[in-house]
Amino acid sequence: MQNDNFDLFREKSAAEIRREKLRAEVKATIIRFMAEAERQGLDAYNAAESEFPGTPDGVLFECLGALGSQQEAAWWDRIQKTIDGEIIKNAIRTRGGKQ
Fold first, then answer.
1. Looking at per-residue confidence, does 2 or 17 come out higher?
2. Tally of structural domains, the chain
3. Exposure string for 47-78, b = 16+ CB within 10 A, e = fewer
4. Residues 60-77: pLDDT tens digits?
5. 37 Cβ partners below 8 Å, 6+ apart?
6. Under 8 Å between Cβ of 35 and 57
């Protein structure tokens, strides 16, 4: 009887690594395209569907979700920098620049 948990510890073959890398590159291309489409005021999903005909909906939705996650992460970074900057400004104002 084979232990299904064994696969968790099995090293990936070169073919599996190449396949994963290729899939990641394809998804990155679609995500970049979607981001540019949004910058141009287009619907990212529909634009990608037209640009990459035959791409399964699941792949396009995964890419759209990844784009949304990237945008959210960038938003949080901007918020954090804004908050950090305000905290520093308030500290300087409160302390009058004195230690």
1. 17
2. 1
3. bbeeeeeeeeeeebeebbeebeeeeeeeeeee
4. 999 999 999 999 999 999
5. 43, 44, 47, 48
6. no
